[in-house]
Amino acid sequence: MFSLLRINTATGETRIEKYSSKDFLLGGRTLSSRLVSREVEATCDALGKKNKLFFCNGALAGTATSSANRLSIGGKSPLTGGIKESNAGGIVGSRMAEQGLRCIALEDAPTGDSAWKIVVVGKDGVQLLDGTFLAGKGVYEKSDLLTAQFGKDAGCITVGPAAEKLLMASGIACSDPHGVCSRYAGRGGLGAVMASKRVIAMVILADGKHKPAFTNKEQFKDESRRVVKLLKENPVSALFTKYGTAAMVDICQSLHVLPTRNFRHGVMEGAEKINAQTMYDTIKARGGEGKTQHACMLPCAIQCSNVYPDEGGKLLCSPIEYETMALMGSNLCLKNLDTIATMNRIANDAGVDTLDCGAAIGVAMEAGLADFGDDQAAIGMMEEIRNLTPLGRILGSGCKVAAKVLGIRHAPHVLGQAIPAYEPRGTKGMAMTYLSSPMGADHTFGFTLRDEAKPLTKEGKVGLSKKFQVIGSRMDAMGMCNFVRYAVRHDMTPLLNLIKSYYDVDITANEFDDFVKETLRIEHHFNTNAGITALDYRFAETFYDEAQPETGEKMDITDEESAQARQW
Amino acid sequence: MFSLLRINTATGETRIEKYSSKDFLLGGRTLSSRLVSREVEATCDALGKKNKLFFCNGALAGTATSSANRLSIGGKSPLTGGIKESNAGGIVGSRMAEQGLRCIALEDAPTGDSAWKIVVVGKDGVQLLDGTFLAGKGVYEKSDLLTAQFGKDAGCITVGPAAEKLLMASGIACSDPHGVCSRYAGRGGLGAVMASKRVIAMVILADGKHKPAFTNKEQFKDESRRVVKLLKENPVSALFTKYGTAAMVDICQSLHVLPTRNFRHGVMEGAEKINAQTMYDTIKARGGEGKTQHACMLPCAIQCSNVYPDEGGKLLCSPIEYETMALMGSNLCLKNLDTIATMNRIANDAGVDTLDCGAAIGVAMEAGLADFGDDQAAIGMMEEIRNLTPLGRILGSGCKVAAKVLGIRHAPHVLGQAIPAYEPRGTKGMAMTYLSSPMGADHTFGFTLRDEAKPLTKEGKVGLSKKFQVIGSRMDAMGMCNFVRYAVRHDMTPLLNLIKSYYDVDITANEFDDFVKETLRIEHHFNTNAGITALDYRFAETFYDEAQPETGEKMDITDEESAQARQW
Q1: Which chain A residue shows the shortest CA-CA distance from B367?
Q2: Confidence at A238, pLDDT banded by 50, 70, 90
Q3: Which residues 6+ apart lie within 8 Å of A505 measured at CB?
C-alpha cells in the first residue's frame, strides 16, 4: 500500500489515502500525470483553486539504489496551458519515503491575499505554519532559514520571489544533500502554482521511520550493485561523471545546433571558452569549494553535478548544466563562465527556470534592449527578474510572452516553453521531439541527438523520436534520473528486477513500456481537453521561413508528421 | 465594377483588380472578412508576411448619404489570433471612393529592419515614399506632418510609436474632416500588422475624380433624406446627438454594469462626476474649441462625437467616448474627466486602443502597481506606454498579456480582447455577445443592453444576442456607422433602396441578412482554422467563481450556450 497525503490549502484539512495500484507503485511521472488527469479539470485556470499540485517520489525512493530519488511534481502548467511534470533531484524523495509517503497533493487555494504557509510533514503529522517571514526573500535565504528551523537533513521545498508574483517561468526548488534548495523542478511554472496556493515552503522532516520492506533484500542489493556497475561502464554516463552535461557544448557546436543569438544560429565563435574542458580546468585551477563531480541526490554513481567556484574558490553556483550554458551563454553570445554562473545563481535565487529566462533574454536582446555579448547587461536583466521590475516580469514570463510584449517574431518555444539547447533546424530528431512533447519543448525525453545519422533530414524522425520518447520516459515513469537511461536502454531488466525484489511484483519490459506509452496518451488527452490543438505544436513561423545559416536548413516538419509522433 | 488596389510591401509592386460581385458592392466588413478568409492562411503569424491588411469602404461611400463612410480594416489579429475587422470614421472612405477604390490591400512584408514607407495613392497612381522622418513620432505630430506634406483634405492613415514596436493593442488612426488622424480602428492590434509591413502611413490624395454614377439620382437623394429624417426622429440617435455615447454612464451605473475596479464591481460611487451631463456642462462652460456635438465623418446627421477642451478652452481630446470613460475612468476608479481626456489623448498619440490599455491598467492597479483612483499614476502609466518603457509595453499588449505578466487572474477579456464597458455578470445578454463575437469581446454588434428585460438571467439570451448580432452587423456589412442601426432596425428598406437607386441592384432584407450571417460564418470558420476552439470563448475563471457584489451574479453561461450563439 502506498500513501497519498492530501492537504487542502484553503481549509488546512489533511487526509491520508492508501492505494496499491501499479501507478502508485511506480510513482514518478506515471503517478503524477495520472493524478493530474483524473483530478484536475483540464480547462481550469492553472493558478486557481481547481488546479492541484502533486509531489511524487518513485518506486525505488528511499532505497540504496543509485539515482532513484527524483521527485516528480505534476499539475496543470500556467506556462503551457497543458499538463506538466517537472522533476528534480535532491533529498525530498527519500524523506517522503522515510515518512511512508508516495505522494503529497496540494489542493484547493485560499484567497490571493491569505498569509503564506509552510507545510511541515513529520512522523507526528502535518502542520501548516505561518510562512510570512519567508516572503519576498531569495531562495538561498529561504533555504538557510528553513535549514535553521528544521535542520539541514529535512527535505525542503520552496519557491522564489518570482513565484510569489506568479511569474510563469518560476520553478520549485528542492534541497540537496547539503540542505541547500538548489535542485529545481524548473519548467512549466509550477512554482507559481505552488505560490497560488499560498504555500511558500514544504518541509519533510528527517524523523521518518519507514524502512523499505524488501521482498528479497539480497537480490535487491545485487541488482543495485549491478546498476552501479552498468552506470560506471557506460561511456555516456562516464562522460557525465567527468564533465557533467557540459560535455554537450562541443558536441552541439560541431553539429551546428548550439543555440546562438536568440536561436538564429547554431554555432558560436569562441564556444570553447565555455565548454566542458574550460569549466573543468577552471574548477580545478580555482580549487576551494569547487567540484567537478558532485551528487545531487544520494546515492548516485553518476554525479554529473558540479560546484562552480568564484575566483576566490567560494561556491558561486551549483550546479551549472549544459542547458543553462547554452541558453544563458551561447544563445546570448556570452563567452564567460563566470557570467553564466552569476546569472544561474541569480536565477536560482529568484526561483526561475534558466532555460525560459535565458530564452526570454535572447528575445529581449533581439529587440534591442541590450547587445548580444554584453555580460553586464545580461546579468542586469537577471537582476531585473530578481527585483521583479516590469522588465524582470516580462523576462520571468518566458520567451513566448516576452516576444509578444517586445514585438519579436522569432520566439524559440513550443507550447510557450522555451526550446532547450539544441537548435531545431539542425536536428530534426530533436525538433520532432519538441513538437511531440505534451510538456512543451522538452529534451528530457525523446533525446535523439546522439543517434541521428542524418540530423538535417526529417525522414525517419517520427519513429526515432518515438523510440527515444519511450526510452527517456521510462526513467521519469519510476522516479529514476534520466541519465540512467543510457545504461539500460537496451535492457530494462536490472530496474525491473529491483521492483520485483522489492515489491514482489512482476512487470515485464513490454508491460513497463505500455505504462510509459499510456502515460503519454493520458498527457496528450489532457492537453486536448485543455484546448490545445495540433496547430499549437509548432515553432514560430520564422523557423519555417528562414534558414539557419550554418546548415542552410529550415524547419520542414509538417503538422501531420508531428501528430504522428504524438500518437500512442 | 469595383476596384481593389493591391500593394506588395516587400517588392513595391502594385496592381489594380476589378470585381463586380456583391461582396465588393457592399464593401465594409462583408468584403474585408471575405478577403481575409480567402487570402490569409488562418494559422499564419499575424505579424508575418502571410498576413494581409485590407482597407475597405462601403457601398455608399463618397455619396451624400449620412454616416456611410466608415472604413473597415481587416486582417488576422495579433491580439486575438483570429480574424479581425475594425472600423473607423473619418474621411478616408470617401477619398478612396473619389479615387475609384473599394479596397486597398497591403500584402507581403519586407524584412523587419527595412525603411519605413508612406503609401500615397492619387489619380496618377501609387507611390511608396520614404517615411523615415515619421518614425518614433506621436500620431498627432505624424498627422501634422502628413497634412503639411499632402494637404489637410487628403485622407491619411497612420500608426503610432506603439505599433512601430508591434504592440498588440495598437490601432490605426484615420484622418477626420479637419485633417487630424483621430479616428481609430483601434481594436485587435491592426496597427502592429500595418507596421509589420513597414508602412508607417497611407495617404489617399484629395485629387480623385470619380463621382458616383447613380442609376436613379433623384430616388437616391430622396432615400438619403429619408435616412436623415429617421436618424433625427429616432430617440436613441437623438440622445447621441446631444450627449454622445457618454449617455451610457448613467444607464450602466443604474444597471450595475459600469466596469469598476478592474471589472470587480458594476457601480462606482461618484459616477456622476464623469457622466454625460457633467461632460456636457463642462464643455459648454469652458467654451473655446469645445463642442458637445461633432461629426467624425461627412455627412453625418448624428454627430455623436465631441471636442473636449481643457480649462483654457483649447482642444484636449476629440472625441471622448463612453467606452473610454468606463475603461479609463470608472474601471480605474477615476472621477475626473480631465484625467480621462488626458489619458485618451496620450493613447491617441501613442496609437493604442483605449479599451485594451484601460483594461490593462486596471489589471496593473489590481496587481498593486498603483492605487485605484490615483489620477497621476494612471496618467503616468499612459506615458509609460507612449514612451515604450517595459511597463508601457506590458500595458500596450492588452489586459490578457498584462495579467499573465503581472500575476493577475481576473483578466477582463475574451480571446485576448478587453471586455467593453458593460460588466458581463450584470448583463448576460452582453456577456453572450462577448462570448459569441469572432473578434474577441466586442460591443459593436450584438448590443442587447437596451433590450434586456431581465439582464441577470441567461435565459433567452442566445436568441437575443443573435438577433442583435445581425442588427449590428448589418451596418458593418456595408460601411455604415453602427449608430444608424437604431433607425433601421425594424426596416432596412431605406438603406436597401439606396443601394437599388445607386447600383440598380435588388437586395431584399432577407438576402441582406443572409450576407450578414454568412459573414459571421466565414469569420468563425477562419477562427476555427486558426486553432481557436470553443474553450477559448470563455471569460477568466474568476468571473464564474466570484459574484459581482452589486448583483450577486456569477457568470453562468456554458460552453454549449455560447457555441449556440456562434452558430449561423
Answers
A1: A165
A2: confident
A3: A22, A25, A499
Q: Which of B113, B405, B533 to mutate to test the interface with A (most CBs of A within 10 A)?
A: B405
Contact yes or no for B85/B479 (Cβ under 8 A) = no
- In this complex, the residue of A391, A530, A538 whose CB is nearest that of residue B390 is A391
Do residues A177 and A295 touch, judged by C-beta distance below 8 A?
yes
Is B474 part of any domain? yes
> How far apart are alpha carbons B115 and B99 in whole angstroms?
27
Instruction: Please tell me whether residues B154 and B81 are part of one structural domain.
Output: yes
> What range does the domain containing A361 cover?
234-421
Question: Interface pTM (ipTM) of the complex?
Answer: 0.97
The whole-angstrom distance between residue A98's C-alpha and the CA centroid of its chain comes to 24
Partner-chain residue, chosen from B45, B391, B407, that has the shortest CB–CB distance to A166: B407
Q: Encode pLDDT of B222-269 as tens digits.
A: 999 999 999 999 998 888 898 999 999 999 999 999 999 999 999 999
The count of domains in chain B is 2
Position A298 pLDDT exceeds 90: no
Q: Report CA-CA distances (Å) from B198 to A102, A491, B115, B144, B180.
A: 57, 58, 7, 20, 22
The 10s digit of each residue's pLDDT in B366-415 is 999 999 999 999 999 999 999 999 999 999 999 999 999 999 999 999 99
Distances, alpha carbon A500 to alpha carbons A216, A254, A431, in Å: 8, 43, 37
The answer to whether residues A140 and A246 belong to one domain is no
Those residues of chain A whose CB sits closer than 8 Å to some CB in chain B are 43-45, 47-50, 78, 112, 165-168, 192, 389-391, 393-394, 397, 401, 404-407, 409, 530-531, 533, 535-536, 538, 540-542, 545
Whether A119 is in a domain gets the answer: yes
Distance CA A200, CA B127 (A): 61
- What contacts A56, CB < 8 A, 6 or more positions away? A27, A28, A29, A31, A32, A35, A71, A72, A73, A74, A102, A103, A479
Q: What distance in Å separates the CA atoms of residue A361 and residue B37, rounded to the nearest whole number?
A: 36
Rounded to the nearest integer, the mean pLDDT of chain B is 97
* Distance between CA atoms of residues B329 and B325, nearest Å: 5
Residues of chain B neighbouring A48 (CB-CB closer than 8 A): 409, 541-542, 545
Sort B285 into a burial class: Cβ within 10 Å, 0-12 / 13-18 / 19+: exposed
Q: Let me know if residue B220 belongs to a domain.
A: no
What is the rounded CA–CA span in Å between residue A347 and residue A171?
10
In this structure, the answer to whether residues B480 and B410 fall within a common structural domain is: yes
Residue of A262, A388, A541, A560 to mutate, interface with B, max B Cβ within 10 Å: A541
The closest alpha carbon to B202, from B53, B78, B359, belongs to B53
Indicate which of A164, A393, A532 best probes the interface with B, i.e. most B CBs within 10 Å of its own CB. Answer: A393
Specify if B427 maps to a domain: yes
Hey, are the CB atoms on B531 and A536 less than 8 Å from each other?
yes
DSSP annotation of B311 reads T
Q: Which CATH number characterizes residue B185's domain?
A: 3.60.9.10
- Set of chain A residues whose Cβ sits within 8 Å of the Cβ of B538: 43
Q: Which helix (H) or strand (E) holds B304?
A: none
User: Given its phi and psi angles, is residue A209 left (phi above 0), alpha (psi -120 to 50 degrees) or beta?
Assistant: alpha
Our CA-based measurement puts residue A452 at a distance from the nearest CA of chain B, in whole angstroms, of: 30
Judge whether B28 and B476 are in contact, CB under 8 Å.
yes
The pTM score is 0.97
Identify the residue whose cell numbers are 472621477: B335
**A418 vs A257: CA distance, rounded Å:** 15
